[in-house]
Amino acid sequence: MEALRTGWDGLMTRVREYMDMNEKRNIFAAMAAGVLFFTGWWIIIDVAARYGSEQFHWAYHLFGVFGTVSFIIVNSISNSQLRDDSFGASDPRAAKIWLLIGFILGFSALTGSIWVLISEFSASNVEKYPGIALLFQNILIFTGSLAFKFGRIEE
């Protein structure tokens, strides 16, 4: 019975070591953010290929572009720049303003896609998939941005 217990404890110890996320957290956060970002753009590429410009206007792609710019802006600021721990001559107020601009762009893209979904694709005789896909694109890009920003740890 004792041999079974030590074997089980050894197995559980190995499982805990394998599942230790501290060393692999940055890798998994980057992979999750990349998959979310890719899926968002893949959905909207599907809509652009399936529906013509009569059903899905080219200007609706701007929401995804603004979400992508938000992704880049939000993740260009490190946490050390926000805390003023960096060794450069960066001002933490400027970093916080830049981060705020990034979040405003991301929320604006989300709000715009909700507005387009409600105003353009809520009629009964209109195909609703392009509007829902536009909303999902921006949700996935924004979630990917948050996963990449807050999922990683800095050393």
TrEMBL record:
It comes from Fragariocoptes setiger. This is Transmembrane protein 50A. It is found in: Membrane. Belongs to the UPF0220 family. It comes from the Eukaryota. It is a multi-pass membrane protein. InterPro entries: UPF0220 (IPR007919). Keywords: Membrane, Transmembrane, Transmembrane helix. The keyword Membrane applies. The chain crosses the membrane at residues 26-45, 57-77, 97-118, 130-148. Coiled coil: none annotated. Its main location: membrane.
